[in-house]
Input
Amino acid sequence: MAEIKIAGIMRASSFSPNHIGNDAAIFNIVAEQLRKRGCEVNVYSEEKFLTAPPTERIILNMCRELRSIKMLQQLEDAGDLVINSGYGIENCIRQRMARILIGSNIPYPESFLVDTDEVVKDRLTKSGITGCWVKCGDMHSMHREDVSYARHPQEAQELLQEFFMRGIKHAVINRHIPGDLIKFYGVSGTPFFYWFYPFDDGHSKYGAERINGHAHQIPFDIDELRRMCAKAADIIDIQIYGGDCVVAPDGSITIIDFNDWPSFAPCREEAGPVIARMIMNRIKTYLHSEY
Output
Protein backbone atom coordinates (compact mmCIF):
# COMPACT_ATOMS: atom_id res chain seq x y z
CA MET A 1 0.00 0.00 0.00
CA ALA A 2 3.00 2.29 -0.44
CA GLU A 3 1.13 4.05 -3.25
CA ILE A 4 -1.26 5.61 -0.73
CA LYS A 5 -0.17 9.20 -0.25
CA ILE A 6 -1.69 11.32 2.49
CA ALA A 7 -1.41 15.03 3.18
CA GLY A 8 -1.36 15.65 6.91
CA ILE A 9 -2.31 19.22 7.81
CA MET A 10 -1.28 20.31 11.32
CA ARG A 11 -3.40 22.74 13.33
CA ALA A 12 -2.21 26.36 13.42
CA SER A 13 -0.79 27.13 16.85
CA SER A 14 -3.28 29.99 17.36
CA PHE A 15 -6.06 27.36 17.41
CA SER A 16 -4.26 25.19 19.97
CA PRO A 17 -4.32 27.51 22.98
CA ASN A 18 -2.50 25.86 25.88
CA HIS A 19 -2.50 22.59 23.89
CA ILE A 20 0.04 23.07 21.09
CA GLY A 21 2.16 20.12 22.23
CA ASN A 22 -0.82 17.86 22.91
CA ASP A 23 -2.42 18.51 19.52
CA ALA A 24 0.88 17.89 17.74
CA ALA A 25 1.48 14.70 19.75
CA ILE A 26 -1.75 12.91 18.77
CA PHE A 27 -1.38 14.03 15.15
CA ASN A 28 2.18 12.68 14.96
CA ILE A 29 1.19 9.38 16.58
CA VAL A 30 -1.57 8.88 13.98
CA ALA A 31 0.76 9.85 11.12
CA GLU A 32 3.37 7.34 12.31
CA GLN A 33 0.74 4.62 12.66
CA LEU A 34 -0.32 5.25 9.06
CA ARG A 35 3.29 5.05 7.90
CA LYS A 36 3.62 1.67 9.64
CA ARG A 37 0.65 0.56 7.57
CA GLY A 38 2.48 1.43 4.35
CA CYS A 39 1.20 4.94 3.71
CA GLU A 40 3.29 7.92 2.74
CA VAL A 41 2.25 10.79 5.02
CA ASN A 42 3.51 14.25 4.08
CA VAL A 43 2.97 16.76 6.87
CA TYR A 44 2.21 20.42 6.18
CA SER A 45 1.52 23.36 8.43
CA GLU A 46 -1.90 24.96 8.19
CA GLU A 47 -0.15 28.12 7.00
CA LYS A 48 1.54 26.18 4.16
CA PHE A 49 -1.77 24.55 3.25
CA LEU A 50 -3.35 27.98 2.78
CA THR A 51 -0.64 29.16 0.40
CA ALA A 52 -0.10 25.94 -1.58
CA PRO A 53 -2.84 23.27 -1.49
CA PRO A 54 -1.38 19.73 -1.47
CA THR A 55 -1.53 17.44 -4.48
CA GLU A 56 -2.42 14.39 -2.39
CA ARG A 57 -6.05 13.28 -2.80
CA ILE A 58 -6.32 12.01 0.79
CA ILE A 59 -6.19 14.75 3.40
CA LEU A 60 -5.91 14.19 7.13
CA ASN A 61 -6.24 17.45 9.00
CA MET A 62 -6.67 19.32 12.26
CA CYS A 63 -7.54 22.62 10.54
CA ARG A 64 -9.72 25.26 12.21
CA GLU A 65 -8.88 28.51 10.42
CA LEU A 66 -11.97 29.65 8.48
CA ARG A 67 -10.04 29.94 5.20
CA SER A 68 -8.67 26.42 5.69
CA ILE A 69 -12.16 25.07 6.32
CA LYS A 70 -13.43 26.56 3.04
CA MET A 71 -10.47 25.13 1.16
CA LEU A 72 -11.08 21.69 2.65
CA GLN A 73 -14.70 21.89 1.55
CA GLN A 74 -13.64 22.76 -1.99
CA LEU A 75 -11.25 19.80 -2.12
CA GLU A 76 -13.94 17.52 -0.69
CA ASP A 77 -16.42 18.72 -3.31
CA ALA A 78 -13.80 17.98 -5.99
CA GLY A 79 -13.66 14.36 -4.83
CA ASP A 80 -10.82 14.27 -2.31
CA LEU A 81 -11.13 12.25 0.90
CA VAL A 82 -10.97 14.73 3.78
CA ILE A 83 -10.84 13.58 7.44
CA ASN A 84 -12.34 15.31 9.40
CA SER A 85 -14.66 16.77 6.77
CA GLY A 86 -14.39 20.52 6.27
CA TYR A 87 -18.17 20.64 6.58
CA GLY A 88 -18.01 18.80 9.90
CA ILE A 89 -15.33 21.14 11.22
CA GLU A 90 -17.51 24.11 10.29
CA ASN A 91 -20.43 22.47 12.07
CA CYS A 92 -18.40 22.53 15.30
CA ILE A 93 -18.40 26.34 15.32
CA ARG A 94 -20.66 27.08 18.27
CA GLN A 95 -23.69 28.75 16.70
CA ARG A 96 -23.94 26.02 14.06
CA MET A 97 -23.25 23.29 16.62
CA ALA A 98 -25.96 24.60 18.96
CA ARG A 99 -28.53 24.68 16.15
CA ILE A 100 -27.63 21.16 15.02
CA LEU A 101 -27.72 19.59 18.47
CA ILE A 102 -30.94 21.32 19.49
CA GLY A 103 -32.56 20.51 16.15
CA SER A 104 -31.56 16.86 16.48
CA ASN A 105 -33.02 16.50 20.00
CA ILE A 106 -29.62 15.84 21.52
CA PRO A 107 -29.61 17.14 25.13
CA TYR A 108 -28.04 20.60 25.10
CA PRO A 109 -28.39 23.48 27.59
CA GLU A 110 -31.15 26.04 27.29
CA SER A 111 -29.52 28.59 25.01
CA PHE A 112 -29.80 31.95 23.31
CA LEU A 113 -28.14 32.43 19.92
CA VAL A 114 -27.59 36.16 19.73
CA ASP A 115 -25.84 39.00 17.97
CA THR A 116 -23.26 40.62 20.21
CA ASP A 117 -24.87 44.06 19.90
CA GLU A 118 -28.16 42.78 21.38
CA VAL A 119 -29.53 43.63 24.80
CA VAL A 120 -30.04 40.25 26.47
CA LYS A 121 -30.10 40.81 30.23
CA ASP A 122 -33.89 41.17 30.40
CA ARG A 123 -34.39 37.97 28.37
CA LEU A 124 -32.04 36.08 30.66
CA THR A 125 -33.77 37.41 33.76
CA LYS A 126 -37.20 36.51 32.37
CA SER A 127 -35.96 32.97 31.67
CA GLY A 128 -34.74 32.62 35.24
CA ILE A 129 -31.13 32.30 34.12
CA THR A 130 -28.52 33.51 36.58
CA GLY A 131 -25.24 31.69 35.98
CA CYS A 132 -24.54 31.19 32.29
CA TRP A 133 -21.76 30.75 29.74
CA VAL A 134 -21.15 33.34 27.03
CA LYS A 135 -19.34 31.76 24.08
CA CYS A 136 -17.95 33.09 20.82
CA GLY A 137 -20.27 31.91 18.06
CA ASP A 138 -18.28 32.89 14.96
CA MET A 139 -15.24 30.65 15.11
CA HIS A 140 -13.37 28.05 17.13
CA SER A 141 -11.95 29.26 20.42
CA MET A 142 -8.60 31.02 20.32
CA HIS A 143 -8.51 32.89 23.64
CA ARG A 144 -9.49 32.27 27.25
CA GLU A 145 -12.20 34.94 26.97
CA ASP A 146 -13.93 33.14 24.07
CA VAL A 147 -15.74 30.99 26.65
CA SER A 148 -16.59 32.96 29.78
CA TYR A 149 -18.78 32.30 32.80
CA ALA A 150 -21.23 35.02 33.86
CA ARG A 151 -22.60 35.02 37.40
CA HIS A 152 -25.71 37.03 36.51
CA PRO A 153 -27.44 38.62 33.48
CA GLN A 154 -25.68 41.99 33.85
CA GLU A 155 -22.29 40.29 33.68
CA ALA A 156 -23.44 38.31 30.64
CA GLN A 157 -24.40 41.59 28.97
CA GLU A 158 -20.97 43.02 29.71
CA LEU A 159 -19.24 39.96 28.27
CA LEU A 160 -21.36 40.25 25.15
CA GLN A 161 -20.29 43.86 24.79
CA GLU A 162 -16.64 42.79 25.06
CA PHE A 163 -17.21 40.32 22.24
CA PHE A 164 -18.71 43.11 20.14
CA MET A 165 -15.71 45.34 20.82
CA ARG A 166 -13.42 42.50 19.68
CA GLY A 167 -15.24 42.24 16.36
CA ILE A 168 -17.12 39.05 17.22
CA LYS A 169 -20.59 39.29 15.70
CA HIS A 170 -22.39 36.28 17.14
CA ALA A 171 -22.48 34.46 20.47
CA VAL A 172 -24.13 31.53 22.19
CA ILE A 173 -25.35 31.93 25.76
CA ASN A 174 -25.85 28.62 27.59
CA ARG A 175 -27.62 28.20 30.91
CA HIS A 176 -25.11 26.84 33.44
CA ILE A 177 -25.85 23.27 34.50
CA PRO A 178 -24.62 22.24 37.97
CA GLY A 179 -23.28 18.73 38.24
CA ASP A 180 -20.29 16.58 37.34
CA LEU A 181 -18.29 17.88 34.39
CA ILE A 182 -17.06 15.09 32.11
CA LYS A 183 -14.67 15.27 29.17
CA PHE A 184 -14.91 12.58 26.50
CA TYR A 185 -13.11 11.40 23.35
CA GLY A 186 -14.36 9.10 20.62
CA VAL A 187 -13.64 7.68 17.17
CA SER A 188 -16.63 7.00 14.92
CA GLY A 189 -17.16 3.46 13.69
CA THR A 190 -15.01 1.98 16.47
CA PRO A 191 -15.60 0.87 20.07
CA PHE A 192 -13.14 3.48 21.33
CA PHE A 193 -14.62 5.87 23.89
CA TYR A 194 -12.78 7.48 26.79
CA TRP A 195 -14.16 9.74 29.51
CA PHE A 196 -12.91 11.29 32.74
CA TYR A 197 -13.49 14.09 35.24
CA PRO A 198 -11.14 16.88 34.05
CA PHE A 199 -11.15 18.98 37.23
CA ASP A 200 -10.28 16.00 39.41
CA ASP A 201 -7.53 14.94 37.01
CA GLY A 202 -6.02 18.43 36.76
CA HIS A 203 -6.78 18.59 33.03
CA SER A 204 -7.59 22.15 32.00
CA LYS A 205 -7.29 24.55 29.09
CA TYR A 206 -8.49 27.80 30.68
CA GLY A 207 -9.44 26.84 34.23
CA ALA A 208 -13.19 26.98 33.55
CA GLU A 209 -13.57 23.49 35.03
CA ARG A 210 -13.43 25.01 38.51
CA ILE A 211 -16.98 26.39 38.08
CA ASN A 212 -18.43 22.88 38.33
CA GLY A 213 -15.63 21.83 40.68
CA HIS A 214 -14.85 18.38 41.99
CA ALA A 215 -17.02 15.55 40.73
CA HIS A 216 -19.49 13.95 43.10
CA GLN A 217 -19.41 10.68 41.14
CA ILE A 218 -23.09 11.00 40.26
CA PRO A 219 -24.23 7.67 38.74
CA PHE A 220 -25.07 7.88 35.05
CA ASP A 221 -25.64 5.59 32.05
CA ILE A 222 -22.29 5.35 30.24
CA ASP A 223 -23.91 3.52 27.31
CA GLU A 224 -26.35 6.39 26.91
CA LEU A 225 -23.43 8.84 26.83
CA ARG A 226 -21.72 6.72 24.15
CA ARG A 227 -24.89 6.62 22.04
CA MET A 228 -25.47 10.35 22.48
CA CYS A 229 -21.93 11.20 21.39
CA ALA A 230 -21.99 8.78 18.45
CA LYS A 231 -25.25 10.34 17.25
CA ALA A 232 -23.84 13.86 17.62
CA ALA A 233 -20.67 12.93 15.71
CA ASP A 234 -22.73 11.42 12.90
CA ILE A 235 -25.06 14.42 12.60
CA ILE A 236 -22.27 16.97 12.87
CA ASP A 237 -20.21 14.87 10.39
CA ILE A 238 -16.92 14.28 12.17
CA GLN A 239 -15.17 10.98 12.84
CA ILE A 240 -12.46 12.04 15.30
CA TYR A 241 -14.19 13.90 18.11
CA GLY A 242 -14.35 14.94 21.72
CA GLY A 243 -16.20 17.29 23.97
CA ASP A 244 -17.71 18.00 27.34
CA CYS A 245 -20.92 17.10 29.08
CA VAL A 246 -22.47 17.58 32.50
CA VAL A 247 -24.15 14.87 34.58
CA ALA A 248 -26.83 16.62 36.63
CA PRO A 249 -27.72 15.47 40.17
CA ASP A 250 -30.60 13.38 38.75
CA GLY A 251 -28.18 11.49 36.45
CA SER A 252 -29.32 13.17 33.23
CA ILE A 253 -26.59 13.95 30.69
CA THR A 254 -26.27 17.17 28.69
CA ILE A 255 -23.63 17.80 26.04
CA ILE A 256 -22.22 21.29 26.47
CA ASP A 257 -19.45 21.23 23.84
CA PHE A 258 -18.47 19.05 20.88
CA ASN A 259 -15.14 19.36 19.08
CA ASP A 260 -13.43 18.13 15.94
CA TRP A 261 -10.18 16.25 16.62
CA PRO A 262 -9.26 17.24 20.18
CA SER A 263 -5.91 16.43 21.81
CA PHE A 264 -6.83 13.02 23.32
CA ALA A 265 -4.15 14.06 25.86
CA PRO A 266 -4.90 11.50 28.61
CA CYS A 267 -5.39 8.61 26.17
CA ARG A 268 -3.47 9.41 22.99
CA GLU A 269 -1.31 6.25 23.04
CA GLU A 270 -4.49 4.15 23.04
CA ALA A 271 -6.39 6.40 20.64
CA GLY A 272 -3.67 6.80 17.99
CA PRO A 273 -3.81 3.25 16.54
CA VAL A 274 -7.62 3.28 16.64
CA ILE A 275 -7.77 6.55 14.70
CA ALA A 276 -5.28 5.15 12.16
CA ARG A 277 -7.34 1.98 11.64
CA MET A 278 -10.49 4.04 11.14
CA ILE A 279 -8.66 6.18 8.57
CA MET A 280 -7.39 3.09 6.73
CA ASN A 281 -10.94 1.75 6.52
CA ARG A 282 -12.12 5.08 5.10
CA ILE A 283 -9.26 5.05 2.59
CA LYS A 284 -10.10 1.51 1.42
CA THR A 285 -13.72 2.49 0.87
CA TYR A 286 -12.64 5.67 -0.92
CA LEU A 287 -10.19 3.88 -3.22
CA HIS A 288 -12.73 1.16 -3.98
CA SER A 289 -15.25 3.80 -5.04
CA GLU A 290 -12.63 5.38 -7.32
CA TYR A 291 -12.33 2.26 -9.46
Remarks:
- The CA atoms of residues 8 and 43 lie 4 Å apart.
- The first helix runs from residue 20 to 36.
- The two ends are 16 Å apart (CA to CA).
